[in-house]
Design brief:
The structure holds 2 protein chains of 2 kinds. By secondary structure, chain A is mainly α. Chain A has 12 helices and no strands. Chain A has one domain. Chain A is elongated, with a radius of gyration of 19 Å. Chain B is α/β, with parallel strands linked by helices. The chains are: A mainly alpha, B alpha/beta.
């Protein structure tokens, strides 16, 4: 219970921080531009069948960018600001704090879906209708949860890494491709399929497209896969964060302000 | 009753790759009694901060043991964390863009306090540290003294019985430092124990019941602050005032006098070798119509300087 309370307080903290410094909302400026580019390519190529993908892709990219960008910054920023040592000295583990803060930023990224839809509708006259809205909502919710879990893992990986910036900058496109965001996984070389199946985004992208087209047929397998992969990432992230804190305590890397 | 803080042969070594490791704490054994304000003194690099880090569980020792209120800092980390407060000095360590109240609400959750309790305690603490009227102002607009008081409020939020203060008044003006010290004394009167790491001898003299001086990770001395001058052995001193500076010159050549130090226009401190020497110097001064004269002991600062030595900028 206290872990959930800590996560909630971390959400509130991040909301307050983001209100003061809304840099995380930058993704909401980029999403319309990405949608415009993709819609222009789709429309000029007369690929009406790809409009749904062109609208969904910026939303998923927005989620991923929000998570990736912020995941790598939470712990380092607290270290630089001298807040890390009092946090380590507190009885609550650091992982839920990171997860709560990242969750807020991820939820901001969800708005990219709505933006993309509006750009397609208002800018290109293509109103994307969702054939299975209930499944679509479930898919978005599951994708958000999985993104929070994955971002928690990424945060720990990036903090542990000695080349944080390089890693952070290079984790965009591989996941857009393996996640089937830009093109469906089915269109990729077959040997990439096993890899893409362990990336929750591949299940999300497919499920969202199916929900839009009404092809999903009430399948809950993809939802379970998204949630399972997200939960595994969250568990790994919390474990790795704990390991990182323990290593910092052992090696004397926790500095006072 | 077990001491509030007890370390036994506590050791911490920092590895530095291919270079020789640094021994920050070298078999340090120390006890801080309950309801005591204990000063931890020493030059830069002496091991003060390393000790505070270990006791507040943010650093693991390389050897020996440390217990806080009977709980081992390694084996029983959770119990220690919920019973101690950590108060750091300096401008950093808070969410600057958020209000003082918002900062405390977040830190309350980290100490497993429910929202209602956190709000109640935050309001009470902000009132107590004199920040109630600025509770909803951003911390970035706070002076250093105000930030320091907020650090203290954060450290007290979970009502710890033991507080570790690391250079808490560093950089504060005398008025702000004085107010902070009065607050610490009030808190001690409520039954809290403080371990205060500081470079400020005046602060240690004003606040601490006992002090421990460490250097090179080893204990140099520990004892009552008021009697710490005795660590310089037979070295005693006499403070006197006299209108004629020639008296001081004449005094300096006496066999019982080790040195004479001018403290003011008409005030001197004369260091003597032993109690008999002090008696003879006092008698000598009385014969020369001295205005005032009293026997004293070396101050904490003198003990510090003579024990640690003049190492200039070296650390």
């Amino acid at each position: 219970m206290s872990t959930l309370r800590v996560m909630w307080q971390a959400v509130l903290l991040q909301l307050a921080l983001s209100r003061r410094n809304p840099e995380h909302a930058l993704v909401l400026l980029i999403a319309p531009m990405q949608t415009t580019t993709m819609m222009a390519l789709t429309v000029t190529a007369h690929r009406e069948d790809a409009v749904a993908s062109a609208v969904l892709a910026p939303g998923l990219i927005g989620l991923w960018v929000a998570a990736l960008d912020y995941a790598g910054r939470v712990v380092p920023e607290d270290r630089w600001a001298g807040r890390f040592s009092p946090m380590v000295a507190a009885p609550v583990p650091l992982g839920p704090v990171v997860a709560g803060r990242v969750a807020t930023v991820v939820l901001v990224g969800v708005a990219a879906f709505a933006e993309s839809w509006l750009v397609a509708a208002l800018g290109f006259g293509r109103v994307v209708t969702v054939a299975d809205p209930a499944l679509f909502a479930v898919a978005v919710a599951a994708t958000c949860l999985a993104t929070i879990g994955t971002a928690t893992l990424l945060s720990a990986v990036l903090v542990v890494s000695r080349a944080r910036d390089v890693l952070q900058n290079s984790l965009g496109y591989p996941f857009y491709i393996l996640g089937g965001i830009l093109v469906p996984v089915a269109a990729l070389p077959g040997w990439l399929d096993p890899l893409s199946r362990v990336v929750f985004l591949s299940w999300s992208a497919e499920l969202l497209r199916d929900a839009v087209r009404g092809d999903a047929g009430g399948r809950l397998g993809p939802v379970a896969a998204i949630l399972g992969l997200g939960a595994a990432a969250m568990a790994a992230g919390l474990w790795l964060t704990r390991r990182y804190v323990d290593r910092s305590r052992r090696e004397g890397m926790v500095e006072f302000a | 009753m077990e001491a509030a803080v007890h370390t036994s042969r506590l050791r911490r070594v920092y590895k530095r790759g291919r270079r020789d490791p640094v021994v920050a704490l070298d078999d340090l054994t120390l006890a801080v009694e309950r309801d005591e304000i204990h000063g931890l003194l020493g030059p830069n690099g002496a091991g003060k901060t390393t000790l505070v880090k270990i006791l507040s569980t943010v650093l693991l020792p390389s050897g020996g043991s440390a217990r806080v209120l009977g709980h081992d800092v390694v084996a029983d980390t959770g119990a220690v964390r919920s019973r101690v407060g950590l108060v750091l000095g300096g401008d950093r360590g808070l969410y600057d863009r958020l209000s003082a109240r918002r900062n405390l609400l977040f830190w309350g959750a980290l100490y497993k306090l429910d929202s209602r309790t956190t709000r109640r305690r935050a309001d009470a603490l902000l009132e107590r540290v004199g920040l109630a009227e600025r509770a909803d102002d951003r911390v970035e607009r706070f002076s250093r003294g105000m930030r320091q008081r907020l650090h203290l409020a954060r450290g007290l939020l979970h009502e710890p019985r033991v507080l570790f203060l690391d250079e808490p008044t560093s950089g504060l003006d005398p008025v702000a430092a004085g107010a902070f010290r009065r607050l610490v004394l009030d808190l001690r009167a409520e039954g809290r124990t403080f371990l205060l790491a500081t470079h400020d001898m005046d602060e240690a003299t004003a606040l601490c019941d006992r002090v421990t001086l460490i250097d090179g990770g080893q204990m140099v001395l520990t004892g009552d602050t008021a009697r710490v001058g005795r660590f310089l052995g037979d070295r005693e001193c006499v403070d006197f005032t006299h209108a004629d500076p020639a008296v001081a010159d004449a005094l300096a050549v006496l066999p019982d006098v080790t040195d004479v130090e001018r403290r003011d226009r008409a005030a001197w401190r004369v260091h003597t070798a032993g109690r008999d020497g002090t008696r003879r110097v006092l008698a000598w001064l009385l014969d020369r119509d001295v205005l005032t004269a009293r026997r004293g002991e070396p101050t904490l600062e003198e003990v510090y300087l003579r024990t640690v030595g003049d190492r200039g900028m070296r650390v």
